[in-house]
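Justification of resources, computational component.

The compute hours requested in this renewal are based largely on the per-chain cost of generating structure records like the one below. Each record pairs the submitted sequence with a full structure-token output. That output is archived, and it is also reused by downstream analysis tasks.
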Amino acid sequence: MIKNLNTKVVKKLLSFGLLDQATLSLTTFLTLAFGVKFLDLEDHSIVAGAYLSFFSLSMLSSGLFYSVINTSIKHTEKPIDFLSQIFTNSIIFSAICILILIIVFSNLLAFLDVNLLFYSAIFVYSNLIHDSLRRCLHLLHKSPIAFVISFSTLTSRLAAFIFIDDLSLVSFFFLLILTELIPVVVIILFGFVPLRFGFAGLSGYFYNSKWGFFAAFPMFITVHSPIMLASSIIGSTSLSVLVTLRSLTNVTNVFVGLLDTTIPILLSAGLKLNLERLVILFYLVTSIIISQYGDVILGFLYGSKFEGYTLEFLLLWLLSGLNILIRLRLVKLRLDLVTSVEMMGFSIGALILTFSYVLLPLGSMVDFILVMLLSYFSVFIVLHWRSPT
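The structure output for this chain reads:
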């Protein structure tokens, strides 16, 4: 970790952190946008479901391996050895989770083509490795290399989207996997983050990270279960629409990603960052724009398939703002090792969702998004109540 930050180092961390996260968000957005072009909404919903699986498993991996790493790594003599063990253990853990999912889905979804299930699983796993490697590079202050990985994935994938006229679902998945894994494998082979299995130096680490891991379960219920439930009640088309709109509203993940990597480093080094008011002001202004021109924006980006979803777009945009405010609180809580509050907050959010599912007649996408907003707001209140001053 950096104890004495000068202006040059701060600018480097922030600039490459922003570039990396912007590239990553743009990659997800373009992948789903071109998916609408190449695939029908039924097939596109499978891609959307794969992304949901990745986001869900990423929560588990982040909770177990990266939730309190910014505090723990300060006390290690060799950060590269510590992070190499974290990285290796995380990709083994992810592989086990993927195998469990394959077994479960192959039994529950017998109608799903085996090839599609295989490609979906590999796609999810490649994303998990990519995500874990980038986290380690940022924590080692090698943000430029993390940006190179994301940029090479974006440019190669975009070139393929532009020059290929037609893609089936299988070939679409194959393209995504290839463009994701090649730069990651190259970086690993060059030894920037060596593979090193073991638990030396990790004693006591999982005692603190366990709260982040257990909090991932109610976090999943709070964040992703409404969309999955909506797909079963309203249909797979709604899953495709919701996930695509969320990829658009999650353009602010440019900043959310910094909350997992760069911002904790700056805060732990003693810098004072007051970002909540800026976030609230930004979302108020942009929400007014979306309410007036939502149909125009959606029609331009996705075509006629997505016209008429301005209300859903606006509500999901507000949801993304709440998500950033929640993540800002989580950064402060994790740095001060106030870890049990995270589980408390998301457990309350999960309970509110559960009661809403049982008591309310949810019959549209707007219903599900409103319930998510209520759940997110309850999480924010709990985290704000216990956030350190």
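Residues 7-386 form one domain. The CA atoms of residues 106 and 114 lie 8 Å apart.
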